[in-house]
Each structure stands twice: as structure tokens, then as C-alpha cells.
Write a structure and sequence with these properties.
- It is a single chain.
- The chain contains 16 helices and seven strands.
- Strands 3-4-2-5-1-6-7 form a seven-stranded mixed beta sheet, sandwiched between helices.
- The structure holds adenosine-5'-diphosphate and magnesium ion.
- Magnesium ion binds next to helix 5.
Length: about 350
């Protein structure tokens, strides 16, 4: 049975902000010069009171978390789905964590045994930036795939340092696609055609949607079987959600009967505010088991990582942000594996 918010405890391990908001976040290079206390020297751990992962993390624990996140031995695996899962990450509100979630979930899944493709469907190209893939003007991109029908093989790029992760970048050309696609045959199904035409082996396709409900997002909803909705634990978090859900229902009724909201991810949770807790309770009350237990904390480290063309997984693998996305990815993988066993009709590994 799902634990209630109070059972998990508001200082629960999923929701604490980054270690020492005033310390670690403010001083990124800190771990190297960190001075251990006498107690830490003796025990290797700072004594823990209520929450073993709450503030003031000892380096050892942070290092342990980093190893779990980076998985250098390859021993930690997240279950692979029996068939390719295509997930649109959508919310027409901007700045709710769509791109951050796509980038970090993709890297987490890829570092733990899954073959992943990110499709950047936002003309701003933030997911491309976050994964460090080339997306300057003239780079073959999702635009050529959608508008000209160029196959995925020719537009996907490998993400450096993460062997089983690829990204189809978005360039500024995509800004015109919404208008150009209007006169194209089967304009809502272009992305689906592009993805279905790719026979390479993939466990996950994560689509980073733009902050609108226009034709690009509709393409994502037609191509996907699942929608992941990131919800920011802030004022007006739920505003506009009804409209998103109605659009999903419309696409489901007319264009893609398989479509469903499979996952809700709470982002930018600040445990110091009552509001974050209220938003969490409201969302859990409304969407119950669709909401992942893992909640992404508000974290400066998470917002810094894209500036280095990195995910939080590689930028600061021992951080709360990295851990929260690792745990969210694990939940997504576990749920998918369960669902797939029940609903499995196709044993294909791609
Ligand atoms: N958990 C977080 N804590 C702090 N900043 C975050 C967090 N998630 C995202 N951000 C930052 O907030 C901004 C919006 O996030 P982003 O993922 O780009 O949202 P969207 O794709 O929905 O517009 C970005 O600058 C990003 O770095
Ligand atoms: Mg974005």
C-alpha cells in the first residue's frame, strides 16, 4: 500500500533539499577540501538522528550515493522493459522541470542498463544543451526528421561518456516547424512515423515537449504511449493541468488510443515551505498511485549542471538532486517492468 505523506515524514529522504543549502550548494568544489570532525574520523559517519540522509552528509555517504548513481561497475541495473517505452514529458507550463527531468531520467536509465533515446522537441534546444550534444544552426536535427522525413539514424547523436544514450537535438529551425507542418500530410503523426521507422534497439524514448499544447506537443502525444507530467511544487502548480489532461483525452479519443498519463513527478520541492507540502498532498490526493514516491528537491546544483552540458548525474552524482532522479528512474523502470509483465503481448527486446 502506498505510504501517506505523513507516514513518509516530511523530512523524508526523498524531499530534503541539497545537503546544507547554505554549505554545499554555495561551494560546489567543497568535497575535496572538506575537513572531517573527530567523530567522523573515528566512525566514518556523522551521527544520524531522525533521517539518515538529511542535512550535513558525511563524505562517505555522499561517495556511496555517487557510486550508486554512476554505477562504474555496471552491477546496478534498472529492469529493462520487454518492449520499447515511448514517454512524452509534457506540461504546457514553462519552467516546471520537463527538460531537467528528461535529461536526468535518461542519463539515470542509461547508466543502469537501459538503451535510451532523448528527443528534444523544444525549439529552445535545452535538452540538447543539457546533454552536451551539438545543436547549432545547420546541425541535422529533429526538424529534418519531422519535416523532411530524414531517418533517425542520420539525426541522432551519441551522448559523450554515456554509451547507451543518444539524443536527437533540436535547433532553432524547429521554431518554424509548427507552421510548416500545417500543410504536411498526417501532420500529427510525423514524430510517430519517425520513431517507428527506427529499428535500432531501444528501451526508452523520452520526448522533451515544448511549453505549449501546439502541433509539436500533439506529435509527441501521438508518438507516445505514456505521458509523464512534471509538477512544480509552487504556486499555481495545478493551474493549466486540467487543460493538459483534456488535450491528452482528445488525442486519446481521436489519434492514439494507447495514450495514458502513466507518471507524475513532483519537482522543485522545497521542504522549508508549507506550500510545497500542500501541493504534494493535493497532487497525491488527486492522482494517487500515478505520482512517484521520489520527489525532486529544489537544488542549485540541478540548475547549474546544464551550464556545463551535463546532467546532475555526472556533474554532482553524490547530490540530493542526482539521488532523487536516480530513485525516480528506478521507480519508472520497476513500474514499467511490472506493467509490462501483466500487459505483455510482445516479447521484443527493442
Ligand atoms: N529541482 C530543481 N531545483 C532547482 N532548479 C531547477 C530544478 N529543476 C529545474 N530547475 C531549473 O529551473 C529552470 C526550468 O527547468 P526546466 O527543466 O528547463 O523546465 P521546463 O523544461 O519545464 O521549462 C531551469 O533553469 C532549470 O535548471
Ligand atoms: Mg524545457
Amino acid at each position: 500500500m502506498r505510504k501517506s505523506t505523513s507516514q513518509r515524514g516530511r523530512s523524508g529522504r526523498h524531499t530534503a533539499p541539497e545537503s546544507t543549502a547554505a554549505g554545499k550548494d554555495a561551494a560546489p568544489a567543497e568535497p575535496k577540501g572538506y575537513q572531517r570532525t573527530a567523530v567522523e574520523e573515528q566512525t566514518g559517519e556523522i551521527p544520524q538522528q531522525n533521517d539518515p540522509l538529511d542535512d550535513d552528509l558525511p563524505l562517505a555517504r555522499e561517495a556511496q550515493r555517487a557510486v550508486r548513481v554512476l554505477n562504474p561497475s555496471g552491477n546496478i541495473t534498472m529492469p529493462r522493459p520487454p518492449k520499447r517505452r515511448v514517454i512524452a514529458v509534457a506540461n504546457q507550463k514553462g519552467g516546471v522541470g520537463k527538460t531537467t527531468s528528461v535529461v536526468n531520467l535518461a542519463v539515470a536509465l542509461a547508466l543502469h542498463g537501459n538503451r535510451v533515446m532523448v528527443i528534444d522537441l523544444d525549439p529552445q534546444g535545452n535538452a540538447s544543451t543539457g546533454l552536451g550534444v551539438e545543436h547549432g544552426a545547420g546541425t541535422p536535427s529533429v526538424y529534418e526528421g519531422l519535416v523532411d522525413g530524414i531517418p533517425v539514424e542520420q539525426i541522432a547523436q551519441r551522448v559523450e561518456g554515456i554509451p547507451s544514450l543518444q539524443c536527437i537535438p533540436a535547433t532553432i529551425d524547429l521554431a518554424g516547424a509548427e507552421v510548416e507542418l500545417v500543410n504536411v500530410v498526417a501532420r500529427e503523426g510525423r514524430l510517430q512515423k519517425m520513431i517507428d521507422g527506427f529499428s535500432g534497439e531501444l528501451d526508452y524514448v523520452l520526448i522533451d515537449c515544448p511549453p505549449s499544447l501546439g502541433l509539436l506537443t500533439v506529435n509527441a502525444l501521438v508518438a507516445a504511449a505514456e505521458v509523464l507530467v512534471p509538477i512544480q511544487c509552487e504556486y499555481y502548480a495545478l493551474e493549466g493541468l486540467g487543460q493538459l489532461l483534456r488535450n491528452i483525452e482528445l488525442v486519446k479519443a481521436h489519434l492514439n488510443s494507447r495514450l495514458r498519463v502513466s507518471t507524475i513527478l513532483l519537482t522543485m520541492y522545497d521542504k522549508r515551505t508549507k506550500l510545497a507540502d500542500q501541493v504534494e498532498q493535493e497532487v497525491r490526493g488527486h492522482f494517487s498511485e500515478l505520482v512517484l514516491d521520489s520527489v525532486v528537491p529544489r537544488s542549485v546544483r540541478l540548475s547549474e549542471a546544464p551550464g556545463y552540458g551535463q546532467s546532475i548525474m555526472t556533474y554532482d552524482p553524490g547530490s540530493r538532486g542526482a539521488t532523487s532522479y536516480f530513485e525516480a528512474a528506478e521507480e519508472i523502470a520497476r513500474r514499467g517492468a511490472k506493467l509490462s509483465r501483466r500487459q505483455q503481448t510482445n516479447k521484443g527486446g527493442n
